[in-house]
Amino acid sequence: MDFTELLGIDAQPGVPLFEQVRTRMIEAVREGALPAGTRLPTVRELAGQLGLAVNTVARAYRELETAGVVETRGRFGTFVASSDPAGAAMTAAAGAFVAAARAVGLGKADALRYLDVAFDNVGGV
């Protein structure tokens, strides 16, 4: 698999390279380009393919593993996790958000305005 094409990393000012690797890997998982169970290249291999420092790719892999997007199986390598962690994380966050909104007496429309503002203030997702 050609990860150079799949990830399309470029030197955008203000977007760290590890963040580009991380977000593009998540997009590839969600779009099905990297299905669950796919073995990923080693950190060194991917760094070589992308022309990046080993530490840059290692940081992206660490963050992906912390988020549950990939899992490392020791010397067998790193694999795309069998489930999308976004579903569970976002369901829990949405439940907490709804509970907080209801606790202060907000309805759905008013609560959603706060989400819109929050997305706008952090540059969206």
3D structure, described in words:
The chain is mainly alpha-helical and 125 residues long. It has two domains: 3-80, Arc Repressor Mutant, subunit A (Orthogonal Bundle), CATH 1.10.10.10; 85-123, no CATH class. The protein is 59% helix and 6% strand. The protein is built from six helices and three strands. A three-stranded antiparallel sheet has the order 1-3-2. Helix 2 crosses helix 4 and helix 3 (43-50) crosses helix 4. The relative contact order is 0.11. The mean pLDDT is 86. InterPro entries: Tscrpt_reg_HTH_GntR (IPR000524), WH-like_DNA-bd_sf (IPR036388), WH_DNA-bd_sf (IPR036390). Keywords: DNA-binding, Transcription, Transcription regulation. It comes from Mycolicibacter sinensis (strain JDM601) (Mycobacterium sinense).
Which CATH architecture of the largest domain is right? Orthogonal Bundle
Quaternary structure state of the chains depicted: single chain
**Widest sheet: strand ordering:** 1-3-2
Give the N-terminus to C-terminus distance in angstroms.
27 Å
CATH superfamily of the largest domain: Winged helix-like DNA-binding domain superfamily/Winged helix DNA-binding domain
Instruction: Give the class from helix and strand content and strand pairing.
Output: mainly alpha
Organism: Mycolicibacter sinensis (strain JDM601)
InterPro entries: Tscrpt_reg_HTH_GntR (IPR000524), WH-like_DNA-bd_sf (IPR036388), WH_DNA-bd_sf (IPR036390)
GO molecular function, one term: DNA-binding transcription factor activity
Keywords: DNA-binding, Transcription, Transcription regulation
